[in-house]
Amino acid sequence: MAQDGQSRALGVTFGPSFFAAPDLATGVQSTGTGTFSPKTSGFGAGLNYGVSGGMSVGRAGNFDVGVGLSGFLTFGSSNNRVVDSFSGPGTVNISGYTTPANASINLSTNVIPGTSTATSDIDHTNPQGGREDVTVTDTNIGGADNIGTVTTAGGANSFALNAVATGQGTVNSAAAYGAVAATDGGIFLGAGDLTGLSITTDVSRGFVFTGLDATVAFSTSVNAMAVQAYAGPSYKFIGQSSNTRISVDIPEIAPSATVFPTYSMERTEALFASYFGGVVGGSMSAPIADNLIFSLGLEGGAYYVRETMRGNESYSVAGGVTPVPLTTVNNANGVDFSADGLAWSARISPSVTMALSPRTQLTLGASVDYLSRVATMSRRAAATTSTYAGTGNGNGTLAYNNAAQTNGLTFAPMWSITPTVSFTGQF
C-alpha cells in the first residue's frame, strides 16, 4: 500500500464478486438421441470484504520503503439444474462413488415387426448377505405394456429396481431399466428406445475464498506519476461445498395404469484447498482531474497447493401408482481424496481515488483475478458391455458386472471479477 507521505494507513474494501469456478460433472453418462448436459456450470456470485494496512519504515536510496498486510474474504454460491431428455434410442449409466461388488445387471431390447421384447435381469448379493435376484421380461405383440418391481433385501441394506416398457401398434418400441443400491455402491442403467426418459440434476454449491498477503513495498515518483513495486509471502484458501440430487423419471408407454417409481441419488461433498506461496506486483498512479487519481495495478503469484475432498452418497427409490415406500441406502464407502500441485495467479486492478479530506480517500475500483488450479470432482461411469452403439434402432444388450470406483479430483482455472468500494485513512 502506498503511503502518500503519511506514516500509517488503514483501508477497508467491500463489493460484489462474480466468479467462474470449475464446472461440476453430473456423473450422468447419456448416449443416443436427445439433449444431454454432462456438467453444471461453476458461474456464481457473492460478496467480498477486504482490509489492508501499511506503514512507512524509512528510505532506501531514492525509494520510500513500507510494509503492508492485506486480507480478503468472499462468500459465494451458485445453483444449477440440468436435464437429460431422451427422444429416441440410447443408453444411460449413472454410477455412484463406488458400484456394487456382487451384482450383475443385464438389459436387452428387441423390436421387430409385430413383436417388442424387453428384459431387465438383476442378480445381487449385498455385503450383509441379503439378496435380490429378479428378472422382469415382456414380449408384446400389441398395445402397451409397462412392468416394474422394486425388491428390498432383508434389513433394508439394499434394493433392486427392474422396469420394462414396450409398445406395439401406434408406437413400436422397447426399453429396459435396472438399478442396484447397496452399502458398497449404486448404479442405474437404461437402454433401448428411451423416448421420454428425463434425468434431472439439481446442484447447490457454496464457496468461501480468503487470503492474506504480507508485503514490502518500494515507492518513488516519476514526474507526476507515483510508482510502487512490492513482493512478499501469500496464502489463499478455497472452500467448496456441494449438494447434488439426481432424479430419474422413468417413462411409461401410454396408455398405462402403471406408474414407475422414481430413482434418485444424492451427494454431499466438501472440498478444501490451501495455497502457500508469494506475490510480486506493482502499481502506477497519476492525477487525471482535480482531486482524482487513476491507478493501475498488476500482480502475479506462485503457489504450492494442497487439496482434500470428502463426500457422502445415498440412493433412494419411492413412489409409483402402487406407492413404493421411500427406501434409502447409504454408501458406506464415501470418498476421501487428497492431491497437491502447483498454481499461479494473476490480477489486474484499475481504480479511481478521490480525497474526502486530507487524510481520508474514497476509491472506486475493480479487480480481475485468475487462478490456474482449482479442484473439482471428476466422475466416470462404471464399465459396461453394450451392443447398442451404432445400431440406431434401440435393439441390443447392456450389461454390468464389475465393481468400480468412479470418481476422483480434476483441476481447472478460475476467474473472478470484483467491483469494489474502498475507504482509506492515514494517521
SSE order and pairing:
Elements: E1 8-20, E2 24-25, E3 28-35, E4 39-40, E5 43-60, E6 63-95, E7 103-112, E8 115-125, E9 131-140, E10 143-152, E11 158-168, E12 173-182, E13 185-193, E14 198-222, E15 225-249, E16 262-289, E17 292-319, E18 324-330, E19 335-357, E20 360-379, E21 385-386, E22 396-400, E23 407-426
Antiparallel strand pairs: 1-5, 1-23, 2-4, 3-6, 5-6, 6-13, 6-14, 7-8, 7-22, 8-9, 10-11, 11-12, 12-13, 14-15, 15-16, 16-17, 17-18, 17-19, 19-20, 20-23, 21-22
Write structural notes for this entry.
The strands form 3 sheets. A 10-stranded antiparallel beta barrel has the order 1-5-6-14-15-16-17-19-20-23. With 427 residues, the protein is an all-beta fold. The radius of gyration is 29 Å and the shape is elongated. 0% of the residues lie in helices and 77% in strands. The protein has one domain. The chain has strands at residues 8-20, 24-25, 28-35, 39-40, 43-60, 63-95, 103-112, 115-125, 131-140, 143-152, 158-168, 173-182, 185-193, 198-222, 225-249, 262-289, 292-319, 324-330, 335-357, 360-379, 385-386, 396-400, 407-426.
Question: Can you give keywords for this protein?
Answer:
mainly beta, 23 strands, 10-stranded antiparallel barrel, 0% helix, single chain, 5-stranded antiparallel sheet, 427 residues
Give a quick rundown of the structure:
The protein has strands at residues 8-20, 24-25, 28-35, 39-40, 43-60, 63-95, 103-112, 115-125, 131-140, 143-152, 158-168, 173-182, 185-193, 198-222, 225-249, 262-289, 292-319, 324-330, 335-357, 360-379, 385-386, 396-400, 407-426.
